[in-house]
Amino acid sequence: MTALVLDGKALAAEFEDDMRARVAQLKARANGRTPQLATILVGEDPASATYVKMKGNACERVGMGSIKVELPASTTTAELLAAIEELNRDPDVHGILLQHPVPSQIDERACFDAIALEKDVDGVTCLGFGRMSMGEDAYGCATPKGIMRLLEHYQVPLSGRHAVVVGRSPILGKPMAMMLLGANATVTICHSRTENLADHIRQADIVVGAVGKPEFIKAEWIKDGAVVVDAGYHPGGVGDIELGPLTDRVSAWTPVPGGVGPMTINTLIFQTLAAGEKALD
Ligand SMILES: Nc1nc(=O)c2c([nH]1)NC[C@@H]1CN(c3ccc(C(=O)N[C@@H](CCC(=O)O)C(=O)O)cc3)C=[N+]21
Fold this sequence. Notes:
Elements: E1 4-5, H1 8-29, E2 36-42, H2 46-62, E3 65-71, H3 77-89, E4 95-98, H4 108-114, H5 126-133, H6 142-153, E5 162-166, H7 173-182, E6 186-190, H8 197-202, E7 206-209, E8 227-230, E9 252-253, H9 260-280
Parallel strand pairs: 1-9, 2-3, 2-4, 5-6, 5-7, 7-8, 8-9
Helix pairs in contact: 1-9, 2-9, 3-4, 6-7, 6-9
The structure holds 5,10-Methenyltetrahydrofolate.
The site of 5,10-Methenyltetrahydrofolate has 18 residues, from helix 2, strand 4, helix 6 and helix 9.
Organism: Isoalcanivorax beigongshangi
Function: Catalyzes the oxidation of 5,10-methylenetetrahydrofolate to 5,10-methenyltetrahydrofolate and then the hydrolysis of 5,10-methenyltetrahydrofolate to 10-formyltetrahydrofolate.
Protein name: Bifunctional protein FolD
């Protein structure tokens, strides 16, 4: 079987070309004003700093603005809430990204939920999640929404198919399951307490690895012809799924790197553009 490579890197680049044109058109209509993303990084984790930088760079490539708020590792919940409130009030900021994780003394949920719905381009608020889950208008959570855009582009059939999502985190597994359900998939959510994980995965037409553990999902658990989506990214360039032995017997798969990661960033800036269009038009 020749498996389809779900090439997130190439698709993100293609989408950026469209977005660049849309940004230029919006700018012309809006007297030179452009959509702007505010990123908030708390602490000095080097991997988080790299991701935040990549998000700012992506804005720049399509002609959008970005501002970077950097706060010390000792920041309190009250201080972070104040920083978010200020960005909520700033008419030149159209989207807000609070990089996860934040230091443990901070109430991350309270801070996510302080982001104004219309600026929640990363899809992290309870309100946005609830609206998305109910099929109402909302910006989806960036990683699962990026996966949905990738599957849609490659016309991977979802309706009636059995999707098994491994992981139930608030910004990945849980919204992923709701989005697949919204696309009429039959969805199983597995997690760290699931018994007989392998048996569940053997039933899957579509497997989404979202556990955050390197190659936790073994190739032998995945049936021939399945669609494999790997949202993990670990040192050494491996994901949550043991991809090596799979690439010639599945129907489609996302490479790591170059699959889900670039679509996450693209979705964030895509939704920032949409928020900018709403505010500036
Ligand atoms: N509020 C919040 N929203 C997020 O969306 C969010 C977050 N917090 N915290 C951390 C994770 C991680 N994340 C990635 C984004 C892009 C790549 C990416 O583009 N990776 C490249 C490789 C990057 C490299 O060169 O190392 C790839 O997969 O091809 C990876 C990981 C977003 N996250």
